[in-house]
């Protein structure tokens, strides 16, 4: 009995220390969470104010002291964007760029598959050459690409806007890294069953590659939706401008109409934020998987 009592007395400090450690960890988690929540709220205030101001009349946006929540909700600013500022044309062009970028995503996947699973002479050297292009700033190649498209009479055309962005070294790299881990035995079994190379790629490789496809799909959408510099350079006709270029024109032509600018910025930014919030898990997981492979 004496030994049992001594053991129980020794065990009590250990239990108390464990409980105290858990409480300390829980307190630290709550403190960190509160600090991050406050920081996130402070950072998001200008963004929230922009969205709310898009639904205010111009007089309310300019009044002092300013109002945070609109006293009178109105859609007049968005109506002006599409009726008087050609935002319908800009939106159409942006959607075309995004859809063509998804075609380029399919080409990048095919290139990554070739580098990962096909054996051909100079494969490694060619892959390193593709990787080397990632170190060249895009601004350096703009003039040569423009001159090439000019020789092909593709300047001031939608094809000239879309073609340079169809393929990208970073996307090819991610696809190659992921697809190189797919077992070769799986592909050989499909070939023995009579599947063509394209069928193997479309029905086996692509379904397995859904995580990296999700990542690249999201990044492709964001890049296409935000396309600004190249459409501005290659297009002289306003009918070929994208939303980003149209928003820049809006700030130049209607610099004093802050409500209209807020509406344009809201229409430009909110879809990107929604896409990122819905699919941020896939972005993080995709980068993690590619890095581990």
Automatic annotation (TrEMBL):
Superkingdom per UniProt: Bacteria
Domain ABC transmembrane type-1: from-to ranges: 90-279
Coiled-coil region(s): none
Pfam family, one: BPD_transp_1
Residue stretches spanning the membrane: 30-52, 95-115, 127-149, 155-175, 212-234, 254-279
Keyword list, A-Z: Cell membrane, Membrane, Transmembrane, Transmembrane helix, Transport
Bilayer disposition of the protein: Multi-pass membrane protein
Principal location class: membrane
Protein location: Cell membrane
InterPro entries: MetI-like, MetI-like_sf
Keyword Protease listed: no
SUPFAM superfamilies tied to this protein: MetI-like (SSF161098)
Family in the record: Belongs to the binding-protein-dependent transport system permease family.
Protein name: Carbohydrate ABC transporter permease
Species for this entry: Fictibacillus terranigra
